[in-house]
Specification:
Length: about 100
């Protein structure tokens, strides 16, 4: 929801649509992304890993193509949207790790 408010290239109609979009993006990252990473390994190697940003954008764009309440206006918007989405994820993970530090076994 915050991404849609910060960036006009991504539109989300409701909280439910945002939750469904996050779920679908997570599924794509779990199932489709590993296959794409392996298939594009030579390109990823020659671009020093920057092609992974393109793969993330493709997952983001594909999720928008499947869902009605979640729209992305073009591949450039998908690329920027996926970068911001990933940045939010890093911030949330960091905050949760500080709130709930890992316990030593």
């Amino acid at each position: 929801m915050a991404l849609a408010h910060l960036y006009s290239g991504v539109e989300i109609t409701s909280f439910g649509a945002a939750m469904l979009a996050a779920f679908v993006i997570g599924l794509f990252n779990l199932i489709v992304r590993p296959a794409l990473v392996v298939l594009t390994l030579p390109v990823t190697f020659f671009t020093l890993g920057l092609f992974l940003f393109v793969i993330n954008a493709l997952m983001f764009w594909a999720a928008a193509g499947l869902l009605e309440g979640f729209q992305v206006h073009g591949f450039g918007s998908a690329l920027l949207g996926s970068l911001v989405y990933s940045a939010f994820g890093v911030v949330i993970d960091s905050a949760l790790e500080r709130l709930f530090p890992p316990q030593a076994l």
